[in-house]
Amino acid sequence: MIQQTQYTPTTSKYNFPQGSTLEDSALPQRFIELSLRSIKNIQNNDATLYQPYQITTDESAIANPSEDVTPTFLGQATLHLNTIPLKPLPTEIPIVAVDVSSIKIGETITGMLIAIRGAIIWKQQPSQYRYLRIGPFPFHITEENKTEIYQLFRQYSFDTPENSLNASAPSLIHMQTRMTTLLERWLQMIIASQSQNSLILWDGSLTAGTSDSPIHIVAQLLETARNRLNTVLAFSKVTRLRLSGHRLTDLIEGCKPPCLLEMDGYPIAPAGNIRFLGNIYIAKLSEGNCSFRLDVDRKLQREQATEALQRLIANDLVSESYPETLRLAHIYSTFTANEVIAIQRFLAQRHGLKTITKLNIRRLLFGPFGKGPEG
Q1: Claim: this prediction has a pTM higher than 0.85
Q2: pLDDT digits (tens, 9 = 90+) for 250-301
Q3: For 92-126, what is each residue's pLDDT tens digit?
Q4: 20 to 30 A Cα–Cα from 230, which one of 122, 273, 305, 375?
Q5: d(C-alpha 109, C-alpha 298), whole Å
Q6: Domain boundaries, the chain
């Protein structure tokens, strides 16, 4: 069973999860106000000409910035692989998952239109899942308002030092990715600080040291979770990590699930400012063709990590080695093609945008050979 928890910006509290309360933060209300103001601003200038983007819900184009700079393991003599068998541990435990997605809606003369949405899923009873959606929030991002949007996230997402609040916003083309990451970090912090004795599932890794995932931010999230006896488990659907030319997720083939493949001996700081804040495992939690990179807080003992996985597979549905709670978080945050059309139509009608067709330069120059993305 899946049940929705209603979210109303003016409501001071709502249930989350298992009887605890998630207090209404200043961010959702400010976020809504800024969203409305950014869209309304279209009517106050010459940006009413609107070019809808080609509808696609493929999120693979937004790369994981941490993975982009993660180095390859080169078969060091000190790196060892160890298989850890798992047995379901039926002790009941709350499971909470979070995911955020964004999508390009269109382009105006002065900026771009995007929509962003987050989803929190928690397993409340053995056969019941509940979900909370934050959004969707449409934004018209321009050179004039991008700094205000960016600093809003930084101010309300974390305990950000005062001197870093004046950090310059990224370029317009990178704002979508940065906003998505910052909203996800804010939701992760809310969950870590409001849950207790729970398993918290993230989509991604615990690699830190990039502009999107500063070390002190990820470390702060993990410390907050630890202090409330939570365990963070980060699942990566795609990983570029390789060992001696082989994908890490291929190394567990032949092992009987459920099991973990532990890697020992790799450097915590592999390159530059990059840090691995989690112990890296390969997880094969059920029968099937899939296995995943799994990061577990490095400051937890190996026995704690093993116990957390054993409680996960006993308390959550697991298909193709992927937890159902995290799968639902992805589904409820992702935009469908129908939703994109609805948002485009709403913005056009409500705010008087005039839809125009974007010139396909590749087709104009190269005819049937003009394939590939439009710049």
Answers
A1: no
A2: 778 778 889 998 877 777 776 678 888 989 898 999 988 888 999 999 999 8
A3: 899 999 999 999 888 888 888 899 999 999 987 77
A4: 273
A5: 47
A6: 2-369
